[in-house]
Amino acid sequence: MLSFWRRNRGFIVFSLILVVLIGLASHKASQQQAPPSPLEELILRGLAPFSRASSLVVQRINTFLNDVKGLLSLRARNYELEAELAALRLRMNLLVEAERENQRLRQLLKYQEANPALDLKLAKIISIGQNPWQQDVIIDQGSQHGVKVNTAVITHQGFVGRVYEVHPTTAKVVLVIDARGPIAAQVQETRVRGTLEADPNNPGMLRMIRLAREAAIRPGDAIVTAGTGALNLPKGILVGYVEAVTPTPDGLQLEASVRPAVNFDSLEDVLLVLSSEEH
Question: How many whole angstroms separate alpha carbon 148 and alpha carbon 232?
Fold first, then answer.
């Protein structure tokens, strides 16, 4: 600030004196009734260009200040609009999520209505297992809701897994793609039976083992549950589709690679098979 004054003090002093003279001359002219003297007229004529210049400067300063005020007002309005836009986007995302959840629930409800022989209960997945070597999830239903160990878990797409640990309000479910979740299964078309388990060499895939060398099974066949005494799981629940059939290393049996029907990466809601007429 001091350096600015030192550099421009001459100009500042001159400007102040000029403004004072213009002001005095203007005031005197407005107050004086008689015509100005030649000297006063000469002074007024000499100051006229400076008066016009100062008026122009003041006008431009006022215009600039109005522009700044308008810009600040526009910026404030812009912030308000950005906040409103963010709120609308959030609301839209919530509506999209709600609609997708409704679609999933409608599909599960439709499946439930189409299978009245099954005592099904809706559950929501609230957590995914953190162990990279295991495939399990936690659901929001437990013993207080009739859930027991080995309760089968399905969706409208097919078989998911079974309950292996129960708490009052939650339960842990081991997925069929986990090594701990093998089930008895059969080829839907030919009724050939075998054991379906997680493929240790291909994570996320299944393999059907203990198939006779001459078993009637081929790529594209649907694999369904064969039903077991341990699970409340009826026959005929879709598990997956055969992708390839190869002989075992000893050549005595066949082994089928099966892709699960359920997309486990997007699993959010499931159905618990509390009981069925077959059990």
Answer: 10
pTM: 0.66
Domains of the chain: 1-114 (no CATH), 118-276 (2.40.10.340)
Closest C-alpha among 256, 227, 224, 55 to residue 152: 227
Rounded CA-CA distance 235/125 in Å is: 25
* DSSP tag of 145: G
Q: What is the pLDDT of residue 167?
A: 96
Closest C-alpha among 159, 153, 161, 157 to residue 121: 153
Higher per-residue confidence, 134 vs 37? 134
**Contacting residues for 22 by C-beta, under 8 A, at least 6 apart:** 47, 50, 51, 54
What tokens does 197 get? 């388990």
Answer whether 177's CB lies under 8 Å from 205's CB.
Answer: yes
